[in-house]
Predict the 3D structure of the following.
Amino acid sequence: MCGNAKCAALVEGALNHQTFSTIPVIFSQLMQISSDPNAGIGDLAGVCERDLATSSRLLRMANSVYFGRNVDQPRVSNITDAIVRLGFRRAQEIIMSASVALVMRVQHSIVDYSAIGLWQHSIAVAIANRLLYRNIFGEHESQDAYLGGLLHDVGLAIEHQFMMQAGFGRAVEQRYISSGLLLDTETDNLGFTHEELGRMLGEKWNFPAYLTELIAAHHDTQIAPDHPWAPLIRINQVSEWLCFSLGLGYSDFSKAHADELAHSRQFLDITDADIQQTAGLLHKEMEALTRTGWFELHHKYAA
Ligand SMILES: [Fe+2]
Ligand SMILES: [Fe+2]
Protein backbone atom coordinates (compact mmCIF):
# COMPACT_ATOMS: atom_id res chain seq x y z
CA MET A 1 0.00 0.00 0.00
CA CYS A 2 1.04 3.56 -0.59
CA GLY A 3 1.19 4.54 3.05
CA ASN A 4 4.05 7.01 3.09
CA ALA A 5 3.60 10.70 3.71
CA LYS A 6 5.05 11.73 0.32
CA CYS A 7 2.45 9.65 -1.49
CA ALA A 8 -0.38 11.05 0.65
CA ALA A 9 0.85 14.62 0.03
CA LEU A 10 0.83 13.98 -3.71
CA VAL A 11 -2.75 12.77 -3.58
CA GLU A 12 -3.71 15.92 -1.66
CA GLY A 13 -1.95 17.99 -4.32
CA ALA A 14 -3.96 16.29 -7.05
CA LEU A 15 -7.22 16.68 -5.10
CA ASN A 16 -6.64 20.43 -4.89
CA HIS A 17 -5.25 20.87 -8.39
CA GLN A 18 -7.64 22.61 -10.75
CA THR A 19 -7.30 20.23 -13.70
CA PHE A 20 -6.90 16.97 -11.76
CA SER A 21 -9.93 17.76 -9.61
CA THR A 22 -12.04 17.88 -12.81
CA ILE A 23 -11.65 14.12 -13.37
CA PRO A 24 -13.75 12.83 -10.42
CA VAL A 25 -16.36 15.56 -10.93
CA ILE A 26 -16.89 14.69 -14.60
CA PHE A 27 -16.74 10.99 -13.79
CA SER A 28 -19.47 11.14 -11.14
CA GLN A 29 -21.68 13.32 -13.36
CA LEU A 30 -21.37 10.80 -16.20
CA MET A 31 -22.08 7.88 -13.85
CA GLN A 32 -25.19 9.64 -12.57
CA ILE A 33 -26.44 10.22 -16.10
CA SER A 34 -25.74 6.58 -17.05
CA SER A 35 -27.72 5.26 -14.11
CA ASP A 36 -30.67 7.63 -14.55
CA PRO A 37 -33.22 6.22 -17.00
CA ASN A 38 -34.76 9.69 -17.36
CA ALA A 39 -31.47 11.39 -18.27
CA GLY A 40 -31.25 12.65 -21.82
CA ILE A 41 -29.02 14.41 -24.32
CA GLY A 42 -29.59 17.76 -22.59
CA ASP A 43 -28.09 16.40 -19.35
CA LEU A 44 -25.01 15.13 -21.16
CA ALA A 45 -24.64 18.41 -23.06
CA GLY A 46 -24.83 20.24 -19.72
CA VAL A 47 -21.75 18.37 -18.41
CA CYS A 48 -19.45 19.76 -21.07
CA GLU A 49 -21.05 22.94 -22.34
CA ARG A 50 -19.14 25.24 -20.01
CA ASP A 51 -15.77 23.74 -20.92
CA LEU A 52 -14.32 24.97 -24.19
CA ALA A 53 -11.75 22.19 -24.54
CA THR A 54 -14.34 19.42 -24.15
CA SER A 55 -16.88 21.13 -26.40
CA SER A 56 -14.24 21.58 -29.07
CA ARG A 57 -13.26 17.90 -28.98
CA LEU A 58 -16.89 16.80 -29.23
CA LEU A 59 -17.52 19.06 -32.23
CA ARG A 60 -14.35 17.93 -33.99
CA MET A 61 -15.30 14.29 -33.57
CA ALA A 62 -18.93 14.82 -34.64
CA ASN A 63 -17.69 16.57 -37.78
CA SER A 64 -15.17 13.84 -38.56
CA VAL A 65 -16.25 11.52 -41.35
CA TYR A 66 -14.77 8.54 -39.49
CA PHE A 67 -16.64 9.09 -36.22
CA GLY A 68 -19.88 10.89 -36.94
CA ARG A 69 -20.55 12.62 -40.21
CA ASN A 70 -21.66 11.08 -43.48
CA VAL A 71 -19.92 12.85 -46.37
CA ASP A 72 -23.21 14.42 -47.54
CA GLN A 73 -24.22 15.66 -44.06
CA PRO A 74 -23.68 19.29 -43.01
CA ARG A 75 -21.27 20.10 -40.17
CA VAL A 76 -22.78 20.44 -36.69
CA SER A 77 -22.06 23.53 -34.63
CA ASN A 78 -23.68 22.89 -31.27
CA ILE A 79 -23.12 20.30 -28.54
CA THR A 80 -26.60 18.78 -28.59
CA ASP A 81 -26.41 18.03 -32.31
CA ALA A 82 -22.87 16.69 -31.84
CA ILE A 83 -24.05 14.22 -29.17
CA VAL A 84 -26.97 13.07 -31.36
CA ARG A 85 -24.59 12.43 -34.24
CA LEU A 86 -21.93 10.64 -32.18
CA GLY A 87 -24.32 8.65 -29.99
CA PHE A 88 -24.59 8.73 -26.22
CA ARG A 89 -21.85 6.23 -25.44
CA ARG A 90 -19.22 7.68 -27.78
CA ALA A 91 -20.01 11.19 -26.50
CA GLN A 92 -19.49 10.01 -22.91
CA GLU A 93 -16.13 8.50 -23.87
CA ILE A 94 -15.05 11.77 -25.47
CA ILE A 95 -16.13 13.89 -22.49
CA MET A 96 -14.23 11.66 -20.04
CA SER A 97 -11.17 11.54 -22.31
CA ALA A 98 -11.14 15.33 -22.62
CA SER A 99 -10.98 15.70 -18.83
CA VAL A 100 -7.99 13.32 -18.72
CA ALA A 101 -6.30 15.16 -21.63
CA LEU A 102 -6.27 18.31 -19.49
CA VAL A 103 -3.94 16.72 -16.94
CA MET A 104 -1.51 15.57 -19.61
CA ARG A 105 -0.68 18.98 -20.99
CA VAL A 106 2.66 19.20 -19.17
CA GLN A 107 5.33 20.37 -21.61
CA HIS A 108 8.67 18.83 -20.63
CA SER A 109 9.65 15.31 -21.60
CA ILE A 110 12.56 13.05 -20.69
CA VAL A 111 14.22 10.27 -22.76
CA ASP A 112 11.36 8.13 -24.16
CA TYR A 113 8.68 9.62 -21.86
CA SER A 114 6.41 12.56 -22.69
CA ALA A 115 2.92 13.61 -21.71
CA ILE A 116 1.78 13.20 -25.28
CA GLY A 117 3.23 9.67 -25.39
CA LEU A 118 1.37 8.80 -22.19
CA TRP A 119 -1.81 10.33 -23.62
CA GLN A 120 -1.50 8.26 -26.83
CA HIS A 121 -0.85 5.14 -24.74
CA SER A 122 -3.88 5.77 -22.49
CA ILE A 123 -6.21 6.29 -25.44
CA ALA A 124 -4.81 3.30 -27.37
CA VAL A 125 -5.24 0.98 -24.35
CA ALA A 126 -8.76 2.36 -23.78
CA ILE A 127 -9.78 1.65 -27.39
CA ALA A 128 -8.17 -1.83 -27.38
CA ASN A 129 -9.96 -2.58 -24.08
CA ARG A 130 -13.30 -1.58 -25.58
CA LEU A 131 -12.73 -3.71 -28.70
CA LEU A 132 -11.52 -6.80 -26.80
CA TYR A 133 -14.21 -6.53 -24.12
CA ARG A 134 -16.94 -6.32 -26.76
CA ASN A 135 -15.53 -9.35 -28.55
CA ILE A 136 -15.42 -11.48 -25.42
CA PHE A 137 -18.31 -10.25 -23.26
CA GLY A 138 -20.49 -8.16 -25.59
CA GLU A 139 -21.39 -4.48 -25.71
CA HIS A 140 -22.66 -4.24 -22.12
CA GLU A 141 -20.05 -2.65 -19.81
CA SER A 142 -17.50 -2.24 -22.60
CA GLN A 143 -17.49 1.43 -21.61
CA ASP A 144 -16.10 0.45 -18.19
CA ALA A 145 -13.22 -1.25 -20.01
CA TYR A 146 -12.62 1.95 -22.02
CA LEU A 147 -12.52 4.07 -18.85
CA GLY A 148 -10.19 1.59 -17.19
CA GLY A 149 -7.74 1.86 -20.07
CA LEU A 150 -7.99 5.63 -20.10
CA LEU A 151 -7.18 5.95 -16.40
CA HIS A 152 -4.98 2.94 -15.62
CA ASP A 153 -1.75 5.02 -15.68
CA VAL A 154 -3.21 8.18 -14.12
CA GLY A 155 -0.63 7.87 -11.33
CA LEU A 156 2.10 8.60 -13.91
CA ALA A 157 0.41 11.85 -14.94
CA ILE A 158 0.44 12.96 -11.32
CA GLU A 159 4.07 12.01 -10.79
CA HIS A 160 4.93 13.92 -13.98
CA GLN A 161 3.05 17.00 -12.79
CA PHE A 162 4.33 17.10 -9.22
CA MET A 163 7.50 14.94 -8.99
CA MET A 164 9.44 15.53 -12.21
CA GLN A 165 12.44 17.05 -10.41
CA ALA A 166 11.88 15.04 -7.23
CA GLY A 167 12.49 11.53 -8.51
CA PHE A 168 10.10 10.86 -11.41
CA GLY A 169 12.56 12.12 -14.03
CA ARG A 170 15.29 9.86 -12.62
CA ALA A 171 12.90 6.90 -12.47
CA VAL A 172 12.00 7.35 -16.15
CA GLU A 173 15.66 7.73 -17.12
CA GLN A 174 16.79 4.64 -15.18
CA ARG A 175 13.97 2.53 -16.64
CA TYR A 176 15.05 3.62 -20.10
CA ILE A 177 18.65 2.60 -19.43
CA SER A 178 17.82 -0.68 -17.67
CA SER A 179 15.00 -1.67 -20.08
CA GLY A 180 13.10 -2.82 -17.02
CA LEU A 181 9.84 -1.90 -15.33
CA LEU A 182 9.08 1.65 -14.29
CA LEU A 183 7.47 0.19 -11.14
CA ASP A 184 10.96 -0.82 -9.95
CA THR A 185 12.68 2.50 -10.64
CA GLU A 186 9.75 4.40 -9.13
CA THR A 187 10.16 2.41 -5.92
CA ASP A 188 13.90 3.21 -5.88
CA ASN A 189 13.50 6.93 -6.58
CA LEU A 190 10.11 7.85 -5.15
CA GLY A 191 9.42 5.18 -2.54
CA PHE A 192 6.11 4.25 -4.16
CA THR A 193 4.67 3.29 -7.56
CA HIS A 194 2.01 4.73 -9.88
CA GLU A 195 -0.15 1.68 -9.07
CA GLU A 196 -0.06 2.51 -5.33
CA LEU A 197 -0.59 6.21 -5.97
CA GLY A 198 -3.44 5.37 -8.37
CA ARG A 199 -5.15 3.17 -5.78
CA MET A 200 -5.07 5.96 -3.23
CA LEU A 201 -6.45 8.42 -5.78
CA GLY A 202 -9.19 6.04 -6.91
CA GLU A 203 -10.30 5.64 -3.30
CA LYS A 204 -10.21 9.39 -2.62
CA TRP A 205 -12.06 10.10 -5.86
CA ASN A 206 -14.72 7.50 -5.03
CA PHE A 207 -14.16 5.56 -8.22
CA PRO A 208 -16.08 2.28 -8.45
CA ALA A 209 -14.18 -0.79 -7.23
CA TYR A 210 -13.48 -2.16 -10.72
CA LEU A 211 -11.68 1.02 -11.71
CA THR A 212 -9.61 1.42 -8.54
CA GLU A 213 -8.63 -2.26 -8.61
CA LEU A 214 -7.61 -2.07 -12.27
CA ILE A 215 -5.49 1.03 -11.66
CA ALA A 216 -3.92 -0.64 -8.60
CA ALA A 217 -3.07 -4.00 -10.23
CA HIS A 218 -2.65 -3.41 -13.95
CA HIS A 219 0.93 -4.79 -13.95
CA ASP A 220 0.14 -7.80 -11.73
CA THR A 221 0.53 -10.76 -14.07
CA GLN A 222 -0.16 -13.22 -11.20
CA ILE A 223 -3.64 -11.90 -10.55
CA ALA A 224 -5.72 -14.57 -8.78
CA PRO A 225 -8.28 -16.27 -11.05
CA ASP A 226 -11.02 -15.61 -8.47
CA HIS A 227 -10.15 -11.91 -8.18
CA PRO A 228 -13.50 -10.18 -8.89
CA TRP A 229 -11.99 -7.98 -11.60
CA ALA A 230 -9.54 -10.49 -13.07
CA PRO A 231 -11.17 -10.55 -16.55
CA LEU A 232 -10.99 -6.76 -16.89
CA ILE A 233 -7.43 -6.59 -15.56
CA ARG A 234 -6.43 -9.39 -17.97
CA ILE A 235 -8.02 -7.53 -20.88
CA ASN A 236 -6.10 -4.39 -19.94
CA GLN A 237 -2.89 -6.45 -19.90
CA VAL A 238 -3.54 -7.82 -23.38
CA SER A 239 -4.23 -4.26 -24.55
CA GLU A 240 -0.97 -3.02 -22.99
CA TRP A 241 0.93 -5.80 -24.74
CA LEU A 242 -0.81 -5.04 -28.05
CA CYS A 243 -0.10 -1.29 -27.84
CA PHE A 244 3.53 -2.03 -26.95
CA SER A 245 3.83 -4.40 -29.93
CA LEU A 246 2.28 -1.83 -32.27
CA GLY A 247 4.42 1.01 -30.87
CA LEU A 248 1.40 3.12 -29.86
CA GLY A 249 2.47 5.74 -27.34
CA TYR A 250 4.70 5.42 -24.28
CA SER A 251 4.90 2.08 -22.42
CA ASP A 252 6.22 1.98 -18.85
CA PHE A 253 7.83 -1.44 -19.41
CA SER A 254 9.87 -3.25 -22.00
CA LYS A 255 9.89 -6.52 -23.93
CA ALA A 256 10.24 -8.93 -20.97
CA HIS A 257 7.18 -7.55 -19.17
CA ALA A 258 5.27 -7.31 -22.47
CA ASP A 259 5.84 -11.05 -22.95
CA GLU A 260 4.43 -11.68 -19.47
CA LEU A 261 1.42 -9.50 -20.18
CA ALA A 262 0.76 -11.47 -23.36
CA HIS A 263 0.06 -14.57 -21.22
CA SER A 264 -3.24 -12.99 -20.24
CA ARG A 265 -4.45 -13.94 -23.72
CA GLN A 266 -4.67 -17.60 -22.75
CA PHE A 267 -6.95 -16.86 -19.74
CA LEU A 268 -9.37 -15.12 -22.07
CA ASP A 269 -9.11 -17.48 -25.07
CA ILE A 270 -8.11 -14.64 -27.37
CA THR A 271 -7.02 -16.07 -30.72
CA ASP A 272 -4.48 -14.73 -33.23
CA ALA A 273 -7.39 -13.81 -35.49
CA ASP A 274 -8.99 -11.77 -32.65
CA ILE A 275 -5.69 -9.97 -32.14
CA GLN A 276 -5.29 -9.23 -35.84
CA GLN A 277 -8.81 -7.89 -36.09
CA THR A 278 -8.41 -5.76 -32.94
CA ALA A 279 -5.06 -4.42 -34.14
CA GLY A 280 -6.58 -3.40 -37.49
CA LEU A 281 -9.53 -1.58 -35.87
CA LEU A 282 -7.25 0.03 -33.28
CA HIS A 283 -4.91 1.36 -35.96
CA LYS A 284 -7.80 2.82 -37.94
CA GLU A 285 -9.29 4.54 -34.90
CA MET A 286 -5.92 5.94 -33.80
CA GLU A 287 -5.29 7.30 -37.30
CA ALA A 288 -8.73 8.90 -37.40
CA LEU A 289 -8.15 10.47 -33.98
CA THR A 290 -4.80 11.84 -35.18
CA ARG A 291 -6.54 13.41 -38.19
CA THR A 292 -9.06 15.18 -35.92
CA GLY A 293 -6.22 16.69 -33.86
CA TRP A 294 -6.98 14.47 -30.86
CA PHE A 295 -3.33 14.19 -29.86
CA GLU A 296 -2.54 17.88 -30.08
CA LEU A 297 -2.65 18.60 -26.37
CA HIS A 298 -1.89 22.26 -26.85
CA HIS A 299 -4.16 23.15 -29.75
CA LYS A 300 -6.28 26.27 -29.60
CA TYR A 301 -9.57 24.40 -29.18
CA ALA A 302 -11.08 25.74 -32.37
CA ALA A 303 -14.17 23.79 -33.41
FE1 LIG B 1 -0.03 1.43 -19.28
FE1 LIG C 1 1.48 1.32 -15.69
DSSP finds 16 helices and no strands in the chain.
